[in-house]
Design brief:
Structural class: alpha+beta
Mean pLDDT: 90
Strand content: 25-35%
Shape: elongated
Low-confidence stretches: none
Distance between the termini: 77 Å
Radius of gyration: 21 Å
Number of strands: 3
Helix content: 40-55%
């Protein structure tokens, strides 16, 4: 095998490893964040919107996700609650060429009342 071919394979390997190093941590944070937003939606049915936003911002601080408070939207539709958050992270797959990736985390939950429960 020629030296040039070995060099190309090594460079390709380094490129793939760098791309994974750039992508996996932000994506892992996104998955954990989305799960936390969903959990917040499930357990925040009778909580004011400002308290829900505070819970999401606590999650943002804990996971180090670049989300501004103004990017958190809470909507009530009867017994349904929807929380929507989007943010952008910059990754550099190819050195010198930053790429902005938008992550959208939204969750909804439907609160079903127990028939024996008082209205």
């Amino acid at each position: 095998m020629s030296t040039f071919r070995k060099l190309v394979k090594i460079l390709l390997f380094v490129f793939v490893v760098n791309a994974m190093y750039q992508f996996v941590p932000p994506y892992y944070r996104y998955v954990r964040f989305k799960d936390g937003v969903h959990e917040t939606a499930l357990f925040s049915q009778r909580v004011p919107d400002t308290a829900i936003v505070d819970r999401v911002m606590t999650l943002v601080d804990r996971l180090n996700v670049p989300v501004a408070r103004e990017s958190v939207f809470v909507q009530h539709e009867g017994a349904r609650i929807v929380i929507s958050v989007s943010y952008v992270e910059t990754m550099t797959f190819v050195p010198g060429r930053p790429y902005e990736w938008q992550f959208d985390a939204s969750a909804d939950a439907l609160h079903v009342r127990n028939p024996k429960e008082a209205p």
